[in-house]
Design brief:
The protein is about 30% helix and about 40% strand. It is of the alpha+beta class.
Length: about 210
């Protein structure tokens, strides 16, 4: 049965609507509202931050994709081939004017799309021969070869650049240095590719009479 005592009824009503522990109902409700409002503000701020980060992430991804998409569709550039026989005229402080023949043969096994490797052979006017290596990047050239077959042989080291001549020919100027006992030998030479003889098809069979 429900209590009929007014004091009891008032006490129960006060407990339900007024007293909740040491805080009144209004105070507790206000605290709950403040916490709920703070949570909503935090959640809204967090969503805004996430949205900003997502936009920034998408823009970064687009930039990266655009930077990779250009070379992906670009046609690969084939490296030039400077293989051939070169007639060289040069001068150095030790010999003076001279002429040599240089042979370049591309080493395809050790070459890359950026750097080409060549086997090099040099033949002088007095029948001496030297072998070495050359590398090219684009039209830039570097070469080196041994000046003797001795165990501790000295090397000739040079650098130059190719220039197109005609339709299929090339020329390059080589500036080089060769160490010796008197301070070194400096020189330069200009080398021009010897044209490859044109091959003619065999003559047709004799006409019938």
């Amino acid at each position: 049965m429900r209590p009929t005592n007014p004091d009891k009824t008032s006490e129960i009503f006060q407990k339900r609507l007024g007293k909740l522990g040491n805080s009144t109902y209004d105070e507790t409700y206000s605290k709950v509202r403040l916490k709920t409002l703070a949570f909503k503000q935090f959640h809204a701020k967090n969503n805004h931050l996430r949205s900003h980060m997502n936009v920034k992430s998408c823009l970064t991804t687009l930039v990266l994709l655009s930077s990779f998409s250009v070379p992906a569709f670009a046609a690969p550039v084939a490296s030039l081939d400077y293989s051939g026989e070169y007639l060289c005229k040069g001068n150095n402080v030790t010999v003076g004017d001279y002429e040599v023949t240089i042979y370049l043969k591309k080493n395809r096994r050790n070459s890359t799309s950026q750097v080409s490797v060549y086997d090099l052979a040099t033949h002088t006017e007095n029948k001496q021969s030297y072998t070495g290596q050359a590398i090219t990047r684009g039209k830039q050239l570097a070469m080196t070869f041994k000046l003797s077959d001795a165990k501790y042989a000295e090397f000739s080291t040079g650098m130059g650049q190719f220039t197109k001549v005609g339709k299929n020919g090339w020329t390059f100027k080589n500036d080089y240095y060769e160490p010796d006992d008197t301070g070194g030998n400096y020189g330069h030479e200009t080398c021009t590719m010897r044209p490859v003889p044109a091959t003619h098809p065999a003559s047709s069979a004799t006409s019938r009479h």
